[in-house]
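Service request form, structural biology core

Requester: graduate student, group of Dr. S.
Request type: structure prediction, single chain
Budget code: on file
Notes: please return the result as structure tokens.

Sequence provided:
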Amino acid sequence: MEGNNELYIVAGPAGVGGTGSLGGVTTTVANGHVTVPASTWKVALVLPKASGDDLSRVACTTRTIAVIMPNTQTINTDWHTYLTTVDAVEALSGYDFFSNLPEPYQRCIEAGTNGSNPPLVKGDQTITFPQPADSIYGDAPFTVTATGGASGNPVTFTASGACSSSGFNGATITVLAAGSCTITASQAGSAIYSAAADVVRTLDVARARQTIAFASLPDRTYGDAPLTVSAGGGGSGNPVTFAASGSCSASGVNGSTITLIGIGVCTVTASQAGSANYLAAPDVVRTFQVFDRTAPSIASVTPSVTSLWPPDKGMVPVSFSVSVTDDVDPAPSCQVIGVTSNEGSSGDWQITGATSVQLRADRLGSGHGRIYVINVRCTDASGNASTATAAVIVPHDQR
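Core staff response, request fulfilled:
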């Protein structure tokens, strides 16, 4: 419906017409045989004539006309008498008029009577911002999202603490350090909507884990030169340090020089301290065996007697003093393992103890004298052995 300079947008039930009946209250006609609504209504939105989108030309001052009239055939009253508000028609009819308009405009134009409207009250906006998951230092940047109110302005993000924001509307969050990351979602207001209340979300950025790459160590021989160990660590920048126990010790830069101090199991432990952004790495333990592969060194085997006289064919006891050293075992075990002679037979000698024998005082009258050679073996705790000999003679004659 149009006037000279005005366009009337008429609203009706189910989107048709601008007139409706109020079914809740009824009356009858035809002597009570027909029941009809007791009232009818009409609502209209009055806009200046113009081309373009009608919705964009509505403001809080836009005039609305709403009437509720008795449903009688004899009515002859100026329609202005029945002016009311659109809100009143909505309450009686159950319809929701002008629902395509922004809610703040609906409030003021539907509460007004024939253009006398209350002032604009800006609409509220609410941000829905789900809680982001906790993160770990070193994680890739992630994107946050949120929905805002009806102003049409974007929800924007800022970050502080252990993170920063960048990218489109600040929605890309980059982890900077371990600690607490605070992300704030905001939405600006407009001519008819207030700015939304900021929504703040806090997430924890945990310290990153570190691992140590420490290869296994081969077995060694006691007496080998010190070895240098090395290992790769995590991102904290702290050095990998070493400690040793058992048959070895650690010294030098970060304990990386391993010296063999005995035989048996050597245990080397690699460690790396943490930092503000990294946890301490789990220790890595490597073990190897240090073997004694060196035989004892026999300096001398000294018999208690070196010459048997007189040659009376008697059995003479002889003991031996062994001077022996070992690089690990302080007391190698020594024993006589055999006797040989240039004369006679096995009945001419007898092994009587670990380092003692009996030798027969005898020789051939036609010879140059008898020589007994006694073989002594010394064995260390690792089973390494050395042998040495000592000689005892029965001279041809006493001179």
